[in-house]
Amino acid sequence: MPSRTWSKITVLFLSLCVVALVGATAPAAALELKAVPTGGQSMYYDVIVVGGEPEGIAAAISAARNGLRTLLVDRRDGLGGLWTYGMLNVIDINYDHRGGLATRGIFDEFYRLLGGDAFNVESARTAFRALVDAQPGLTTMLNTSLVRPLFEDDQTSAHNPQTGFRLLAGIQVEQNGQVHNLYARRFIDATQDADLAAASGVPYTVGEQDIGRPGRFMAATLILHIGGVDWNKVEETARRHTFGYSKANSVEAWGFPFIGQRYKPHDPTTRLRGLNIGRQSKDQVLINGLLIFGVNGLAPQSIANGMARGKAEAVYVLSFLKKNFPGFEHSYLLPFPPELYIRETRHIIGQYQLTLDDVLENRDFPDRIGLGSYPVDIQATGPDDSGAVYGVPYTYAIPFRVMVTPSVPNLLVVGRSASYTSLAAGSARTVPVGIVEGQAAGVAAMVSIKENVLFPDFVWHPATVARMQGLLVRQGAYLRPPDTPNRNQDHWAYPATRTLLELGLVAGGYENNFRFGEPATGLRFANIIVPGWLQTRRLVMYRSEPTAEPVPVTTAERARVSQVYALATSGQITGEQAARMVLLLAGWQLDKKDDAYSLARQQGLLSPAFVAHCGPGPLDNACAYELAATFLRGLAPDLR
User: Fold this and answer.
1) Whole-angstrom Cα distance, residue 334 to residue 485?
2) Is a pLDDT exceeding 90 seen at residue 491?
3) 12-52, pLDDT tens digit by residue?
4) Domains, the chain, with CATH or none
5) CA 218, CA 224: separation in Å to the nearest integer?
6) pTM of the predicted model, to two decimals?
7) How far apart (Å, rounded) are the C-alpha atoms in residues 137 and 174?
């Protein structure tokens, strides 16, 4: 796992940084390539930003405002990405400890420009275009697709075997049938899927692969564009809590959890969850609520299929709303967004990977470039999954290193595919955090060029980090160190809970309540140890051989799982029963007369903490967590 402090940098990364320090002494001109004949043009910049998402717009504006000749490239015909082409018009706000914005600087500028928590999509598209066009030193290239990265020797291989990394010298793009080579000193990848980083050989995981759940992604969403809505009735419905807890104001309404329980989808690979409703002009709204399962955001055909399924289900959703939701009686569907809202694809493995612990324990970092605080909201991954809120931080720091790619040391990655674990991304993937990263990336690019220090080497130059942070603060960023502890950290069973959190097996919800003192049931215990057992098997294999296919569960192993669930009742479980379930899953053959508790203790399956706080009698959740975590750590020793 990536290091958590400055002092725990891995030996591999130390060697890379030493080489990078040597490379950083070369003149900036060494990053310039000779033009490769393509029939197009070759152009030179200080910084190239790939991706016209809000994060990319922030990065480009920040770089240009700091005096860099900047190019912003996007494949679409306009700017705004998810906010304008996915039409996600309700912003996931990160609040600080006083209820103000935790994400400031350029995000605050966007927030005020767009009018607050919800905005008009067409107005946003126009505002972004005007803002970029008015910025001296900033050029845009739209309708421009990335073809490939260009390295110093113009080879397609991403890594130089002699140094362990390669400098990115440019990108090859295609615009209107013409191929162009674009060169720069520094690069910022602001695409939703970290496309430039992936093409450059930066390592990454996909979906929940990193926690032993390969092939699972958070659901995609088709935002519903609906006209003919009576907003006064929508506000009244929210105030009455007709569909469960809900709130509304003049521009948005959110909550309505009972909607998802009452609506029966026509297509079982879709689901309607609670609604986020953002107003547009007059009687139009945009609704974020229709989940579409099984969409691989890296596969165009899967995206197209998901879009088709979403459009078909939208007809039934509208019919339900017209009949059941006051304010929608005379509503009708308007043209759909051109893109799906894809929540999750790649998670790059950068110089540091933000973890769920970092988020929920409100951690600070010496290289902080911003703050996050959004709930760790992992949307459902399939029809058999309800999703989970793993907890709610107060504020936590975003370290600069989550944007840094040591194997390509003049590239930064901002946005939802930055270096977060899949569960940490449940909070950090929000666009406001990505905008904060974009602003920091622009400042870091200027500092990097001016001081001739490559991005991974910032770790060796505290004065450079301080200079970057000082510039960010002067340019409106909010860098107040987090100082609120997680109240659960003092509980004796929290280390075990942290292990289970790492695998997504327990959740604290919106109240950060793990119900330590409540009775543990057999079914809940089984639903921790069985999925955990399957995940740790995959993790051990993945960490030793990342490209290996998961080993299928054998018939004998299925029989063990069946034995465990045969013992899993909804009643309170005892230490004796829990020990028996763990031993069965571990492959022991037991008779009814066997003393499972004593045997588990002899085999090291009961920790000293469990023996001290629990025993063979009735267990509470804290004891169940401790036993489950001890079992899973034995299967995968590198679990925390």
Assistant:
1) 47
2) yes
3) 333 333 333 333 333 333 333 333 333 456 789 999 999 99
4) 6-24+41-207+345-474 (3.50.50.60), 220-333 (no CATH), 487-635 (no CATH)
5) 19
6) 0.91
7) 22
